[in-house]
Amino acid sequence: MGSIQRSAALLLFVLAGLCVGQRIVLVQEGRLYRARGYHITIWCNVSGYQGPSEQNFHWSIYLPSAPEREVQIISTMDPSFTYAIYTQRVRSREIYVEKVQGDSALLHIKELQDQDAGEYECHTPNTDERFFGSYSAKMNLSVIPDTLSATMTPQTLTLVEGDPLELTCEVSKSTAQHTHLSVAWYHLQGSGDAQATVILSLSKDFVLTPGPSYMQRFLSDVRLDKVGDTTYKLSIGKVQPSDQGQVYCEAVEWIQDPGGSWKDITQKQTEKTLLTVGSQDRDFQANIAAVESSLAEGKPLQVNCSVTAQNSQNRWFQVVWLFKGVEVARIDPHGVLALKKEYEERAALGQLQVVKKSNEMYILKVYQVGLKDKGTYSCEVSEMEKASAGFSIIQSKMSSGIEVNMKPIENHMQVSVLSSERQIVEGDTLILHCEVSGATSPLSVNWWHLQKSGDQPDHIVGMERDGMLRPGPSYQERSANRDLRLEKINSTTFTLAIYNTSATSDGGSYKCEVTEWSMDRSWKQTQETSVAISPLKSKLRVNTEDRSLEISGSADTEIECSVTSLTQRDSQLAITWYFLPPSPADAAPLQIVRTNYSNILDYGAEFRSAMQKSKFHSERVSSNLFWLRILSVNHGDRGRYYCLVEEWLWSADRGWYNLGKKESGKTMLEFKVSENKLHVEKTNHSITATENEDVTLSCLLQGPSQPASLFSAIWFHGLEHSGMKTLVKVHTSGMVEYAEEAMVERLHLRRPSFGDFNLTLRSVEPGDTGVYCCQVQEWQQDSGGAWVLRASELSGYTTLTALPPESTISSRVCSSPSLLHFILVYPLVLFLGLTAALLYLSVKSRQAHKESIYQRKGKELWVDLKGAGDVEPTYSDHNNLEEEMNNLKEE
User: Fold this and answer.
1) Beta carbons of 116 and 144 less than 8 angstroms apart
2) Cβ atoms within 10 Å of 264's Cβ, excluding its own
3) Alpha-carbon Rg of the chain, whole angstroms?
4) How many Cβ atoms are within 10 Å of 421's Cβ, its own excluded?
5) For the purposes of burial, counting CB atoms within 10 Å of the CB of 142, is it exposed (0-12), middle (13-18) or buried (19 or more)?
6) Which of 728, 746, 715 is nearest to 610 (CA)?
């Protein structure tokens, strides 16, 4: 705290000095790094003087070889001030002082030398009646080598208008200090002393900026790229007559001074390249040709439109395709394709493509021609030029027409259906093969089922030409359960497999329908076969009767799942228990626990905490009877429960397979309110909290209670219109049990008074929004000394809404210039506030240490009262503990 006091006192002293007119000399902040052979300026200002406004300046240097010896350089008032070693440079004005105004001056050194490195002092002679303040200030200057290099091979180039141009500039440096580079390309029209204009520049901050004359051509035609570590490439896509002249590159090295500003310290220019730009011949020709003009239906057609022109790679062309004299496709100068509706649809299906292969070659390709593609093809080529509103046409040329002839194709497809077995047993797999011969085009397949003559055929599944499977409406569920499969074994064989067949629904006639597709035409063939399925003696049954249970709080209960019949005597059963919350009515069932046919347990996502696993147990009471045992029922367990039974069999060729599954009836579990009443606060509350804020929820026991009673409490959380789930439970012994381990750090359950079960939710999150309530339970000892539940009651509901975080105090302070100004101008107020805060933290630390000792001693007293047995402390024990704790507080 002493250092803070000293700093505050020093700041107050400086501010006080300014108020009474103390003289202060300031020099440019150092250390400065400047390159040998370049100009440097160092500023010096004086303020707070009482004399005339015209002040004088003496400049001296302390060399590294003799840091204690002053070497005088130049003065604004005394010509004899200069030492001999600087006399010649001062006389020749290589070193001079520039008066910016009466109390401000600049020291200039035109060409830095190595011996100019050292500590510079600016001294201002006193003009006041008394000496008060500072009269000199110092800064350091280091002279570093000039390592910047910029080179470009000089050339003399003669190009034609529209030709591309690329020039490279090699820029490098090896300065030890951290520096940045800027690179710019310049254009000089004519020769001699003409003013150079910027083409493109890359700043030290990597900002690319075009010169005024090249703004319109920036990016589209003129680019500057850094290639590798040292190479900067200027690219002009199409040279223009205005580009004629001399082109060169300039590099500048920048360093950041201590004050934060950037200063150029070295600069280099390359030799110049002389550029001459001539005009071009703009005539061109359009030609059309087909790879094959007479071909069979379904074969590919390619028609080429070519452009013959001088310097075509640097000119803009638009190509329009015509079929029978009507436009069908257009490629603009940027290569953007526009198709008429019919051709656009064919292109989307992958049947047609129009591409620009180069500026000289444009291709129309139809992958499988049809009879409608027969006719005359031609193309129109237009040369374009850029205008302010896009492109405009300079001239157009039409090619001759080419006639394309087509031969229709014939279909020879044949279909046959084969079954692995003509008769199968219920539950076995039905396998059917559909074999196709004579097809040359893509195929699609559909399977149909006709159970008996006269019925409407039922669509089983189809496979599109792209291999996409589409099950029929009646077979959606079987497909989702993987009881249905359609595979393409090879290019001509399609196999249908139906698993877990049913004698009542899967027998009958099966038809394979194959369609061969060729462009806009298709050919269809069908074949069918009959299948007989022998029944098994019909099957798994489960008790589907709905039940209702009303359970008192903290009692145990069992939900029954009864299997009344099985398909096979040696089949194995898998049991899955589900829970349906009381609301909403369409709530999705939650899996509690599943026991598979190998008796392996798997708890659902909502029931995997240690508390839930210890509460819910799946038991097999007999070969056909299963229980879901629920221990210590509470308010959060209200809802409907049911089981899903699956029957599994083992087969040597198939492994374990599912014979079927059945749902039981639903058991409604209600929480019975005890006849003995507890007085728990029933008022409903609403709380709005900001994210990351702590929130305390109240659960208050009101009115008198029996002296020998002990109390436990359970907190629940749920969304509005949905079921409640357990959060945390505090037992009569004070032990706290959490439903989720992840919530241990965020939930704090405490009892500030005997009948208060407060729950503090730390660092509120969006997922905490919802409804909260607590269930209080009263326990008393019976005649045998066992603790039994006497009464149970629910509190009122608290609705919590979590809002996004607001801006912090620090962000508001930093964004307020007036508040920052207040803190800087009045440091004494800040100092006094900091001192008070430190004293407050010291007192709080001592109080926290005392509270820690108090809590530890309280726990030790509790353990002594409870002892090693399982019997809960009596009411008198609680009174003794409270008296001992009060004594600790007084200590």
Assistant:
1) no
2) 15
3) 47
4) 12
5) middle
6) 728
